[in-house]
Design brief:
Length: about 475
């Protein structure tokens, strides 16, 4: 009897412990909203469908590191074969944190909604949410909150999940729905997502969007390829113009603009269309279609051939402009050179004496056009020098510098001489010095800071309470490259 009472007491204690722990163990699981509508609800049928899409997908080979992907979000019979190009591409890269960004089609709210549940459920199983990363994206002041209602019927992110489950094995996800974006939410998310991506090399952002809606087949093709071109060129400016003028359409316009902002901050160099189709190609009529695109955003250094081209273009531009007042109008097809870029063109005369140097620090035009523009300016509009004369052309050397994005710094120890250039902003004045300048003059870090302060027309110690940015650069000059004849 004593033994029986002891056993009963133990069971009572255990039961009490279990019951007390159960509430703490209860997980917030988001049930699927569009299973059985946008994609099959039967696990076997769904798995076979995605396998079929992936097997047929044949994305082009990519050079460089993968920064971001774009994927459509319609029903699988319409957009599944295009989405498969996104995920077959992703399969070749080891990514464990997937940040999905898409538009809210049903719920209205200001800013962005960051999902804060524990798991997402599909017919293929559960996907864990990275709660720590998600929490870091919550900011009430920046209109970044969690609106559970926004996810109740939404499909733009959910349709990406089964594809992820079929292409990745060990990953967590973060879900961001964009409502009516505010300036604060855009700035906050751009900055925070950039920070996360720089810190987490195993992370990838996927932008979920469809393109034009309900236009005739030929009209949709034209509109959609204009949008795709803007994305491939990383041109926020061109994409905004297309959307504002109604010459281009995207239901995920703000996620796309946010994505491009983050991509540029991460040093992405260009995009690559993996697959385009519309519903007229896949499963619908051609008199009223919806467009879909799979796009990869990449970061890659310039190839030897691209460097040769840019240096030759700078030299040719200077010679043509000085002799005739005209500039070359090359036909460029290389997407890397068509993507927006920031460059400086420097002209030296014999003895490596500066003869002109002009550039742009923000990527607001195609890379090759930036070289043409700055080559003309360096030859004719540098206020420190008179315009270059035809008689000087034989005695000059030309250098092209391609800049990375600016990165604000708070500690001058982040500056590496020979690697970083500097940009200073204070009291309405600004100045920039390229990385090679510090090396040429043999400056240390403080001398470099004093020099960039003076370049801005500020006192030598102005850097101590100014806003400072660093950047890296690809320097293209005759002694490190063989020019194409």
């Amino acid at each position: 009897m004593v033994l029986e009472k002891g056993i009963k007491s133990i069971w009572v204690v255990l039961l009490t412990v279990v019951l007390s722990v159960l509430p703490a163990c209860k997980k917030d699981i988001k049930e699927p909203s569009v299973s059985g509508a946008f994609y099959p609800s039967n696990p076997e049928t769904l798995s076979k469908m995605i396998d079929g899409f992936l097997e047929k997908a044949n994305p082009p080979s990519l050079e460089g590191s993968l920064v971001m992907l774009f994927s459509p979000h319609a029903g699988y019979i319409y957009s599944g074969e295009v989405a498969a190009y996104t995920y077959k591409t992703l399969k070749g890269f080891k990514k464990r944190l997937i940040i999905l960004v898409g538009p809210s089609h049903y719920a209205r709210f200001k800013g962005a909604s960051v999902f804060m549940g524990d798991y997402l459920k599909t017919p293929l199983g559960l996907i864990e949410v990275d709660k720590a990363v998600s929490a870091s994206l919550i900011n009430d002041d920046a209109d970044c909150k969690y609106y559970p209602e926004a996810y109740r019927k939404e499909h733009s992110l959910e349709v990406q999940l089964p594809f992820l489950q079929k292409t990745l094995k060990d990953f967590k996800t973060v879900l961001i729905l964009i409502g009516s974006p505010s300036r604060e939410s855009f700035r906050f998310l751009s900055k925070r997502l950039s920070e996360i991506m720089k810190r987490r090399k195993d992370a990838i952002i996927i932008i979920s969007t469809d393109l034009s809606h309900y236009h005739p087949y030929s009209v949709a093709n034209e509109m959609d390829h204009e949008v795709v071109n803007a994305i491939e060129h990383l041109s926020i400016e061109d994409l905004e113009k297309l959307l504002q003028s109604k010459k281009g359409e995207m239901c995920g316009s703000y996620p796309a603009l946010l994505g491009l902002s983050v991509a540029r901050a991460l040093g992405a160099t260009h995009g690559k269309l993996l697959r385009y189709a519309n519903s007229g190609d896949t499963a619908g009529r051609k008199d009223s279609v919806v467009g879909y695109a799979s796009i990869a955003i990449l970061k890659a250094p310039l190839t030897e051939g691209q460097k040769q081209y840019l240096l030759k273009l700078a030299r040719q531009t200077i010679e043509t402009y000085v002799k005739t007042g005209k500039t070359p109008e090359p036909e460029v097809k290389d997407v890397r050179l068509l993507a927006n870029g920031a460059t400086f063109v420097t002209i030296y005369k014999k003895g490596h004496l500066l003869r002109g140097c002009i550039g742009n620090i923000f990527p607001f035009m195609p890379l090759y056009k930036s070289v043409i523009r700055n080559a003309v300016a360096a030859a004719s509009r540098d206020p420190r020098f008179r315009p270059l004369q035809p008689s000087e052309l034989e005695d000059i050397e030309v250098e092209v510098t391609v800049l990375s994005p600016l990165e604000q710094i708070t500690d001058i120890r982040e500056i590496e001489i020979g690697k970083h250039g500097l940009y200073i902003v204070k009291d309405g004045r600004s100045g920039i010095l390229l990385p090679q300048v510090a090396t040429e003059f043999g400056w240390n870090r403080e001398q470099f800071l004093q020099a960039v302060s003076e370049k801005a027309g500020l006192p030598p110690d102005a850097w101590k309470d100014a806003t400072l940015y660093r950047f890296t650069a690809e320097i293209i000059k005759k002694d490190n490259i063989t020019l194409i004849k």
